[in-house]
Amino acid sequence: MPEVNVLDMTGKEVGKMNLSDAIFGIEPNKVVMHAAVVNYLANQRQGTQSTLTRTEVSGGGRKPWSQKKTGHARQGSIRAPQWRHGGIALGPKPRDYSYTLNRKVKKLAIKSAFSSKVSEQNFIVVDKIAFDSYKTKDMVKMLSALGAGKKSLIVMPAVDEKVIKNAANIPGVKTTLYNTLNVYDILNCDKMIIAKEACEKIQEVYA
Hints:
Elements: E1 3-7, E2 13-18, H1 21-24, H2 30-44, H3 103-119, E3 123-126, H4 136-146, E4 152-156, H5 161-168, E5 174-177, H6 183-188, E6 191-195, H7 196-206
Parallel strand pairs: 1-3, 3-6, 4-5, 4-6
Antiparallel strand pairs: 1-2
Helix pairs in contact: 2-3, 4-5
């Protein structure tokens, strides 16, 4: 059973916490983690790119010249794809790129992501994350005390406007809730900073 130190916001150790083997101690499955990341990125695509076909561009109502005896190649419309200002052949049209993964695959992927962070010692449990005021420097001070760089993911048990606002102006720092975590965000951060209460709730959800 993995055991991690519980720190306060100044980086001081205030206790220890045992993590579930089934969630934080499995052998990370790189295949399913990759599948989950690809799925997440595909689902983020807007799919709004669109080009005009020859039927949608203006002009080209009549045949530009006779079929024969002109010395030119035969042409049917000045808005055919080979013409300047012509329509686009086989160009992109709006479409939905999203798809769903099997629930077991998603669950295994997020457990693998958790386990990889714990095994790499990039999983930091903080007894409580709370601020008295809206100051970015307070968040910077906490990250520095915890040994976290600017590419960090802060996981909270509930919405806290001060935590969100204090982290908003720091490039690379993202805040999220325990129940909206995804594999991409976990793997994309250098350090995962999680409130103890959020960690306990994760163990309840994925147990």
